[in-house]
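Example 3.2
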Amino acid sequence: MRLNDLLLGIAVMCLWGFNFSVIKLGADQIDPTLLVALRFTLAAIPAVFFVARPAVPARYFFAYGLTFGTGVWGMMTWSITVGISAGMAGLLMQLSVVSSLVLGWAWLKERLTLPKLLGAGLALAGLAVSMTLQDGSVSLIGLLFVLVAAISWSLTGIIVKKAATAEVFAFSVWGMLFAPIPLIMVAWVSQGAEVFLTLPAQMNREVWFSVFFQAYPTTLLGYWLWNRLIVSYPLSTVAPLTLLVPVFGLLGSFLFYGEAMSSTKLLACMLILTGLMVSQWRTGLFTRLFGRLY
């Protein structure tokens, strides 16, 4: 990669990593469901008026909006409000390497290669280690929400593949248009009208910052820049940059919330990130290296 593009990619990963701390800033003050609904409302409108709709059936937009909005970021935001630290949320999200393996095999008939299986095993080992943490950064209910978010992240990839469009950014913008509706319905069913009546008084500068940061730099700008890199370089060149997201997530949580970095947490981080890295190795390269060693 050219140096400018490499720095741009790292900047996007920093943006996405620090976003977990910004989510916590807003979710600590207003209903997390409405926080996510506001994020995707502002991200989709007015962007849909400037981005042409891809030639994709509406059911794919709805499926993407539901899965990406409620499944990924709804669950992730809820996990932060019920006991998952901002740093661990970014790290545990990488467990999608396991769900992607299972869903890819079951739904898309993808082969279970040795690197993918080994990567999934290492990620699961990291999950097991994270469950032993006693510093309050991981709760059981929060962990369940994160796992649903990780599975939903894998499902969004399948939805994009099934939609079969090359206009991924435009597809995501139009898909996000469908995200706020189920989130608002969940807030209404779970909290009643009161949650909407109290919202205006809760919208202080910190909450607005959280909403705008998530909607524009993180979502629209971040995904637009990321798609530019995906188009310009092979996926095998760009994908490893995503390993930096949980690193910046942990760094942001340490800087803004004083999250402690214990040896147990670092071990979980190392296992999950190594699993993600190994799962992305090309089979041929992995086989050659494995043959040389053994």
